[in-house]
Amino acid sequence: HDAQELDTDAVTVNMRGKGGRAALHAAANSGQMGIASTLLKRGAQTDLQCDDGSTALHLAAAQGHALVVRILLRFGASTDIRDAMGKTAFDLATPSVREVLPQPALLELK
User: Fold this and answer.
1) Per-residue H/E/C for 12-53
2) pLDDT, tens digit, for every residue of 41-94?
3) Closest Cα to residue 89, out of 99, 76, 78?
4) What pTM does this model have?
5) Quick one: which of 3, 44, 52, 54 is 20 to 30 A from 20 by CA?
6) What distance in Å separates the CA atoms of residue 21 and residue 50, rounded to the nearest whole number?
7) Confidence band (pLDDT; 50, 70, 90) for 6?
8) Which residues 6+ apart lie within 8 Å of 31 measured at CB?
9) Assign residue 23 a region: left if phi > 0, alpha if psi is -120 to 50, beta otherwise?
10) d(Cα 74, Cα 11) in Å, to the nearest integer?
């Protein structure tokens, strides 16, 4: 899809397809920073979860798309969400993306 073709209606931007994925999930998974940016500016929900619990941040991090990760973080994507396997985006991130993501807080044992 060309960014100019995208509907400006946030409801349409957040429509889900197969596996509960929205357009932002597809853009994040394939590293399409320009499309991801346009979707976010038009109201795409950063923390919308697919059927497997993945967010766009999980997908971008796992695929090593550091620039997409940065823009998702800039738009307020949560780093605390866990997918169906209990993994955060940091858990799934490639080494280069781990440098971009904030380190998860270590739990203090009492």
Assistant:
1) HHCCCCHHHCCHHHHHHHHCCHHHHHHHHHCCCCCCCCCCCC
2) 999 999 999 999 999 999 999 999 999 999 999 999 999 999 999 999 999 999
3) 78
4) 0.85
5) 3
6) 5
7) very low
8) 60, 63, 65, 67, 68
9) alpha
10) 21
